[in-house]
């Protein structure tokens, strides 16, 4: 049973200003739904690197002193290097905006991929949060790798003191610190205990699994094709559908392909997570990376590739190993260094159901879906937790290719290799992650002689692919970050790197801290009819092919489920029913009440006849507009106005006369 045409207002809160690290909240049907909880890490570029051992280079950097003698910073709080200023303290991160939403009111968190869940401990721990968190199994497990690696990196190089004063005099600081956005909102990283408690809240789900949210909504994760376990989400309530598209890809890589069909014809599509490198082609960048690696190795140098512990690095292992074999560098070792390197490599090869068809087929040969398993067996790829791990110093030899974190170059083993190789022009550092501007990442290490190559490999949707996808999905309303309506800063002249307008469709844009209203017309709502009431329905044909029936009952709303239940009889009616002692089987109570329902158009001629029969002889008729008639009863000081949509009786306070006229009117319409 459906009811229709109810307008509903849905609000979206934007808690993140970085479309690549989204965090939004929908207020929909009385529920607060968080879409992703991305953590912006770019703030760490404003801090000095955390070396594994004390670094003479960073210790010898000059202190910055304020020209205002009344302002005194802690000794060494701000360091200068080649015209740039850096905070000499433990790095801080930009969590989702807290003041806009009380996190304790969040009912459910939907996570689209492991890169968009790194702020989860900030949201679930110490905030009173008691909702549900949903993610696919690979998203949970690989997200755990990312979080554990991040915490280990920070805890491996603790700072003796915390810099605070610089935030109070930000306007007086040199570049780039005087230009950072609201540093007082930055926070230090959470602990491993907070990570474990936060991840314990996550409930794993599979692709296309329909999840009931308090009876009000049904949410479903849909394969997005971006990385292992990545998903888009559909949020369905009755006849309305909202699709959340974040971190999607139409390219053929190792994850399962994107499912576009499930996203079609949504009332609202929220799109974010487009490529951060729209001006380059990932295949071309992969080719350029391999070429630069080969050139460096031929010259006797080694290559450093700062990376995350999962994702594109799997494709780099595969592509680079083939290139090394083809170029005769079969003896050149590749090293993968990360606190979670062994777990990441092992886990990736047991995820057949989340992989592309070609990768899945290898499992049934049987064969490992990723080549890094055979590379490890053949000692071509060697993995260690840290550079001080047992066996590393024995196995390490140059020239080589080293994969290690962190891509920001602010912590992790990458800091050691930049210091080790930075002064040698034979070596090369290749940046593949677009999260960090590579020149800013290198700034505190300057001057450097090492060769620098920027090859951002980003497989998420570019603007051309996104525009094509939008046309195919045919959304009612498109919601996008404001950034997507203007060319990116890295290519301001390329006017095609934007989301195109959609003819006859609304596009709503937003930015960090905004609360926007999503126009959503609720067409229908589902009501469940009680079986006892269903038995009493007697349909009546009101015109050929159209049969209707009315029901009278009590509407019960519980857990967002609407049930229509039979009327409960009053005590007096139960007593009367008992006295009557009906013969035969008991009848449902709804049949004991004599209720008639009028419908159709008032028959004016029949009404005039009945009024005359009832003694109203001085009746006058005035024809108004095409659908309006006025009947005058001068002797009774009464006016009856009849139109297509209403009938009004004005009778000067004579209640008995009004009821009499009402009964005559009801005799002149059809009823059942």
From TrEMBL:
InterPro entries: Beta_Casp, Integrator_9su, IntS9-like_C, Metallo-B-lactamas, RibonucZ/Hydroxyglut_hydro. It comes from Anopheles melas. Residues 313-442 form the Beta-Casp domain. Keywords: Cytoplasm, Nucleus. Coiled coil: none annotated. Belongs to the metallo-beta-lactamase superfamily. RNA-metabolizing metallo-beta-lactamase-like family. INTS9 subfamily. One of its GO terms (cellular component) is integrator complex. This is Beta-Casp domain-containing protein. It is found in: Cytoplasm; Nucleus. GO terms for biological process: snRNA 3'-end processing. The keyword Chloroplast does not apply. PANTHER family: INTEGRATOR COMPLEX SUBUNIT 9.
């Amino acid at each position: 049973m459906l009811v229709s045409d109810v307008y509903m207002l849905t609000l979206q809160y934007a808690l993140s200003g970085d479309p690549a690290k989204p965090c939004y909240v929908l207020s929909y049907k009385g529920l607060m739904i968080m879409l992703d909880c991305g953590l912006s890490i770019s703030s760490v570029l404003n801090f000095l690197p955390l070396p594994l051992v004390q670094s003479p280079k960073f210790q010898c950097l000059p202190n910055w002193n304020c020209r205002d003698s009344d302002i005194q910073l802690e000794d060494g709080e701000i360091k200068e290097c080649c015209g740039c200023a850096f905070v000499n303290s433990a790095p801080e991160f930009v969590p989702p905006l807290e003041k806009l939403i009380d996190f304790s009111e969040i009912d459910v968190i939907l996570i689209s991929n492991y890169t968009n869940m790194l702020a989860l401990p900030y949201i679930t721990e110490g905030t009173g949060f008691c909702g549900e968190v949903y993610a696919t199994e690979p998203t949970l497990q690989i997200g755990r790798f990312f979080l554990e690696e991040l915490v280990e990196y920070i805890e491996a190089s603790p700072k003796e003191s915390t810099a605070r004063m610089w935030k109070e005099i930000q306007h007086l600081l040199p570049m780039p610190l005087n230009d950072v956005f609201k540093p007082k909102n930055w926070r230090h990283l959470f602990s491993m205990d907070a990570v474990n408690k936060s991840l314990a809240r996550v409930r794993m789900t599979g692709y296309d699994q329909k999840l009931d949210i308090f009876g009000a909504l049904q949410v479903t994760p849909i394969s997005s094709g971006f990385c292992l376990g990545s998903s888009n989400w559909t949020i369905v309530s009755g006849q309305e559908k909202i699709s959340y598209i974040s971190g999607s890809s139409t390219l053929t890589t190792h994850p399962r392909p994107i499912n576009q069909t499930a996203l079609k014809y949504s009332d609202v599509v929220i799109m974010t997570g487009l490529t951060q490198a729209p001006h380059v082609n990932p295949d071309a960048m992969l080719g350029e990376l391999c070429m630069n690696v080969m050139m460096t190795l031929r010259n006797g140098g080694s290559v450093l590739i700062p990376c995350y512990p999962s994702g594109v690095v799997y494709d780099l292992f595969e592509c680079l190993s083939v290139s090394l074999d083809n170029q005769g560098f079969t003896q050149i070792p590749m090293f993968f260094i990360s606190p979670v390197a062994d777990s990441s490599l092992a886990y990736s090869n047991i995820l057949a159901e989340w992989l592309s068809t070609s990768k899945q087929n290898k499992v049934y040969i049987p064969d490992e879906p990723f080549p890094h398993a055979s590379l490890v067996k053949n000692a071509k790829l060697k993995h260690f937790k840290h550079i001080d791990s047992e066996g590393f110093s024995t196995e390490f030899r140059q020239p080589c290719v080293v994969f290690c974190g962190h891509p920001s170059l602010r912590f992790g083993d990458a800091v050691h290799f930049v210091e080790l190789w930075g002064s040698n022009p034979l070596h090369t550092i290749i940046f593949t992650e677009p999260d960090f501007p590579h020149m800013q990442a290198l700034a505190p290490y300057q001057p450097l002689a090492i060769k620098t190559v920027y090859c951002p490999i980003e497989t998420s949707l570019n603007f051309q692919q996104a525009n094509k996808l939008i046309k195919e999905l045919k959304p009612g309303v498109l919601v996008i970050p404001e950034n997507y309506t203007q060319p990116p800063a890295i290519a301001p002249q390329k006017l095609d790197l934007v989301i195109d307008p959609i003819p006859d469709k609304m596009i709503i844009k937003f930015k960090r801290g905004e609360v926007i209203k999503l126009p959503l017309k609720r067409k229908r709502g589902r009501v469940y009819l009680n079986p006892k009431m269903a038995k009493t329905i007697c349909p009546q044909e009101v015109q050929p092919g159209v049969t209707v029936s009315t029901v009278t009952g009590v509407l019960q709303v519980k857990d967002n489920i609407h049930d229509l239940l039979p009327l409960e009889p009053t005590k007096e009616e139960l007593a009367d029913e008992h006295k009557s002692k009906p013969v035969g089987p008991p009848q449902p109570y709804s049949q004991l009440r004599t209720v008639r329902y009028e419908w159709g158009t008032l028959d004016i001629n029949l009404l005039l006849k009945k009024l005359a029969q009832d003694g109203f002889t001085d009746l006058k008729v005035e024809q108004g507009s095409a659908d309006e008639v006025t009947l005058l009863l001068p002797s009774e000081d009464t006016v009856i106005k009849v139109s297509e949509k209403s009938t009004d009786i004005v009778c000067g306070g004579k209640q008995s006369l009004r009821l009499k006229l009402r009964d005559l009117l009801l005799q002149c319409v059809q009823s059942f």
